[in-house]
Amino acid sequence: MSAPHRFVRDVSALPTHAFGNRSLTWWGVILFMLMEGAGFALAGGAYFILKSHQGDWPPSPILPPDLLAGTLFTLVMLASEIPNTIVKKKAEAEEIAPVRLLLPIIAAIGGLLLVIRAFEFGSLNVLWTDNPYGSIVWALLVLHTTHIVTDWVDTLVLTALMFTRHGPTGKRFVDVSENSLYWRFVWLTWLPIYLLIYWVPRW
Amino acid sequence: MIARDGPELQGAELHDRLARTWSRKPGLIGWLSTVDHKEVGRRYAVTAFIFFALAGVLALIMRTQLATPESGLISADRYNQIFTMHGSTMMFLFAVPVMDAIAIYLIPLMVGARTIAFPRLHAFSYYMYLGGGLMLWIAFALNIGPDIGWFAYTPLSGPEYDPGKRADMWAQMITFTEVAALALSASIIGTIFKLRAPGMRLDRMPLFAWAMLVVSFMVIFAMPAIALASAFLISDRLVGTQFFNPAEGGDPILWQHMFWFFGHPEVYIIFLPATGFVSQITETFSGRSIFGYPFMVLALVATGLLAFGLWVHHMFATGLPRLGYAFYTAASMTVAIPSGIQIFCWIATMWSGRPRFAVPMLYVVGFIITFVIGGLSGVMVASVPLDLQMHDTYFVVAHFHYVLIGGAVFPLLGVVTYWFPKITGRMMSERLGRWGFGLLFAAFNLTFMPMHWTGLMGMPRRVYTYPAGMGWDVLNLVSTIGAFGIAVAVILFLVNVFTSYWKGEPAGPNPWGGTSLEWATTSPPPPYNFAHVPVVESRTPLWDVDGGPLPVMTGLQVDERETLMTTLIDAEPDVLEASAEPSIWPLVAAIVTAILFVGSVFTPWAIVWGSIPVAIALIAWFWPKKALEPGEEPVSA
């Protein structure tokens, strides 16, 4: 082998999992958020560059998107933070019963949001082929929908996993906690996109 | 009873058990399932050098065509594909991936870790990169290679001017390599932040690790720009969106903004790892720690930040408001300051040390000379009136080859020579290495120095031929002769690599007397990197112990893949986390993702239907395979 060693400390007593920034999973999620956040910010920049070339936004005679579906989506999404916060706390307290109760509820909310999202696409009042306004509005909504679908599938898989023998273990509680963290990011990014799609065209 | 390393379990028995735990299975499936950062890093590097050779051959074809005026060797259409393939391959399939390749091989060793963070993700990254490269080159072989230049400006690359699938192949290759680069940047940041050896505080990290940390964050903020831009381009071409279509109020200049918001940082994504190489080599061969370490770190971070404020200097010729001109000229000149600081620190290190001019150090000297010339012509084109004259001429071609070959390829070849003994256990030939360096340095200058004049005399870039009597003939011929000289130098380097691989002198763990941790383990390193976790007490750990016993921590599991995680800033031991086992699922996930990407060039439904197998593969990747995985200790009922 290589050079001889001088033993300075035994680390075997250290914990085998930890929450927050002590966990590698947390860093993975944070970095993923940075990548997606950068993508959304740039899409927002593209929105304003395209807007700067148009006299009217939306170009007449197109009407701004109808408010009902998008606003309902926003409200449901904000409300979802309540079970999301609770499940995060319970996961960090390593209590399996409430986690098994709440995860299916959160997954159901995700499903409901996707149904509302389908109506949002129907209420944009523009097609992506019509003009750059239509293209960027559709792009923002499609990007964010990808976001929701990814997190929804992730939540479904995690929910299933938590009902197996792999569920009540340190590593999985960390996963649940980080899944909740990611969901916060999903709805936080929605708020500026909601303004771009529904309110900027009304100003 | 869980077996752990320590005074009772060390030496040969520990080696056998750790090797069993950290080795992959033999056979083809085992080979494809590897998550060992050293294996993946080697494959990444070999693949990148193959693309380098292919793109180099294209360069020779172009130079042969341009050696004489009105040459009819290749048609205009083929020439367009060739220069696009050359640039795209060199930038996306060679320069960025090869830096990443070296990082994933070396960073875990340098920071004293058992493995890389997110091992399966980095294996997936390799397969995505390979898929993107194969797609582009197969398309080129089928005469659907892109012909729009490596930055694919709209509207030329849009559906109106580029019917067919050529531009789509370019745009989708971007998607592959961008996924690959993002995945790697997460692995590298995770490794640097959480897997550093105890005591390796941030202010004791090797400068190459600092460089890769900055670069990985730059990738995270820059790559989404090109991802979004190429997605917009593909959707303009495939489903009729109007992002870049001026006829419907779209904006072709939006493409340039999005491309260069990525493209300018890209230059530093290639250059900063090279500065890390230079710092490592300079330190070892000067026999002293790097002069001005805090300034070096600040220069890296400053370059990383400033790189995002320069992109518009690529767009001076599009017409900008006066204030924009002034701002971006100033910003472009500002970025020369941190680069200058680094260069002065390297010179001061050599000056105050005892420099040994072995081959890696020769490349460092070659780098400093060449890069300074490229940097100065960069300051010239940062000035708007000059830029408007030189835009799209061979002057710019000369400038960026000085920066990229001088700034990145020279340090790269130096660092391959430097780390070759660590990777293979054998030394490269010093004699062949000196000849190779000398020839490369001379031939490089012979090729690209005349291009400054060809450009100043008005020869535009990207023309497939030129009339006689413009005064460009001799200069072009000289450049062509130089290009073949570069080819000979590269072949010499490869001959050195191959003969040394089989017959080189055995290296031992630390042939150059380096001080960073990769030199503390055997050459080549075992699958588990270090028998015990090394402990760091300064910026120069191996020089501290001076051949004496290395301080280590113990207590990691021997029969499971366990890694020690440390705290972010001070690298205090914190948590023992399980590391992923080898798995075939990253490969499967990459294959189905590749099918989705390639399919979406032809129909948008590929995204819808293709996402189902992708989801299945990802679920299989993450789903636990054992009854109870490491790290799944039950915590409550």
UniProtKB/TrEMBL annotation, chain A:
Q: Which GO terms describe its cellular component?
A: plasma membrane
Cited InterPro entries:
Cyt_c/ubiquinol_Oxase_su3, Cyt_c_oxidase-like_su3, Cyt_c_oxidase_su3-like_sf, Cyt_c_oxidase_su3_a-hlx
The yes or no answer to whether the keyword Cell membrane is present is yes
Q: What is this protein called?
A: Cytochrome C oxidase subunit III
Pfam families reported in the protein's UniProt record: COX3 (PF00510)
Give TM regions. Answer: 24-50, 62-80, 101-119, 139-161, 181-200
Q: Which organism is it from?
A: Sphingomonas horti
Q: Which residues form a coiled coil?
A: none
Instruction: List the PANTHER family.
Output: CYTOCHROME BO(3) UBIQUINOL OXIDASE SUBUNIT 3, CYTOCHROME C OXIDASE SUBUNIT III
Automatic annotation (TrEMBL), chain B:
Catalysed reactions, semicolon-separated: 4 Fe(II)-[cytochrome c] + O2 + 8 H(+)(in) = 4 Fe(III)-[cytochrome c] + 2 H2O + 4 H(+)(out)
- Keyword Hydrolase attributed: no
Stated EC number for the protein is: 7.1.1.9
Q: Which InterPro entries match?
A: Cyt_c_oxase-like_su1_dom, Cyt_c_oxase-like_su1_sf, Cyt_C_Oxase_1, Cyt_c_Oxase_su1_BS, Cyt_c_oxidase_su1_bac
Q: Where is the Cytochrome oxidase subunit I profile domain?
A: 25-537
The keyword Iron-sulfur appears for this protein: no
Q: What does this protein do?
A: Cytochrome c oxidase is the component of the respiratory chain that catalyzes the reduction of oxygen to water. Subunits 1-3 form the functional core of the enzyme complex. CO I is the catalytic subunit of the enzyme. Electrons originating in cytochrome c are transferred via the copper A center of subunit 2 and heme A of subunit 1 to the bimetallic center formed by heme A3 and copper B.
Protein name in UniProt: Cytochrome c oxidase subunit 1
- According to its UniProt entry, this protein's organism is Sphingomonas horti
